[in-house]
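[job 0412] stage=complex_fold ligand=zinc ion status=START
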Amino acid sequence: MKKVLKLNARSVVEVKDGGECQCVKLNFQVYKDGKPNFGSKVIIYRREETGYVFDYDEWEYFDCLLPREDEIVFDGELEIDNTFCEYTDYDVEVGKTYVYWVGRERFGEYLTGPAPVTVRDRRVWWHFDEILEKTYALQKDFPNDVTLEQVGNTVYGKPLVAAYVGNRKNLIACVGAVHAGESGPEILLPLVRELLTEHHELLERCGMAILPVVNADMREKMVDGAPWYIRTNAVGVDLNRNFDADWELIDYSYNLSSADYRSPTYRGPYPNSEPEVRALIKLMESAAPRALFSFHFLCSITADGLIVSKSAKDDAPYLADADEVKQIYSDSFRDAIGAQRRENYKAGIVCSAGSLPTYMYRKHGIPAFDLEISGDLDMLMDCKRDQTTPEMVDIARRGHKDGLIKMLERYSV
Ligand SMILES: [Zn+2]
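[job 0412] stage=complex_fold status=DONE, emitting structure tokens
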């Protein structure tokens, strides 16, 4: 039996001809009769996949594809290192999705695949290394104003490093990418750097605690080119359902059950079961923020859709406070990006049982928000098709910067 095994495709940046270029790297093992087969001839098929709809389809979509025999990107001998072959496809475009198959005989029956990959824009999707580097750079460039603290690790062991900025005794908290395919680091880290440069005095009156990426393991998969939306952490738990705050209540958002382990909204086997959640709790306990803003939505972008916990639905004073925050945040967000203000804009009461806002409401009693898109802001909706541009991230950052400046003023001492 002839076989090519374990085909993986990743979108990476390489230096070629003296400059950085984005490419797709294929890795696979070649076997023959159950043993590694050295020096075999390899054929690589590729097709550009334009019909895939981000956010809806999953693996099944790609599994059903068949290779087009006329798109051969490689036909020849590849070097084998141990049992591994590697092929780099430099002829790719940022933003496009490709599907690869590998075989050893032309039109033969030994094709392995498909391996789908989306070539992601590195200005829109940052690698974990880059996020860490930028977090450490804040401390290096502003040593008197920034302290870093590792608050935990992800399932795969990535360090979760939080930054305390400015006043450590009186602060607000911002966290990013609790859901892998959503927003956070690309908005928050440049924003904090700007605030340190331009609003130093304000930060001394009200500081910030920042954790730019929470679901770092699975976000890395998206940066590497997983073409579909990923929500859960590496062991399939929705971190925004896992907190020990009304966890026992089953949530049915998106017509999915949070008690179903197959659901992308799975709450986990027991409250606080996930290391990322315990890291967040540690951060929140040591930071004791006055308010919390958790960045969500899609593809590195979010807007001024501020939503609060369903558990607070009968708590009128809490909701009145949340509405006030939302109006202030939204007005400044919209002024900053030149969008029309919304009158009497109320906080949506939609955050689930076991979510971070529910936890902050129950345990700390502070205004706590997930930040989502607002339906009327067409300008940001390209992210729904996985087509976020650096310009869109810039717009979002400008809006959130002014929104957060107003929050720093509101909670200043
Ligand atoms: Zn989310």
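Residues 2-118 form a domain with the Immunoglobulin-like fold (CATH 2.60.40.10).
[job 0412] exit 0
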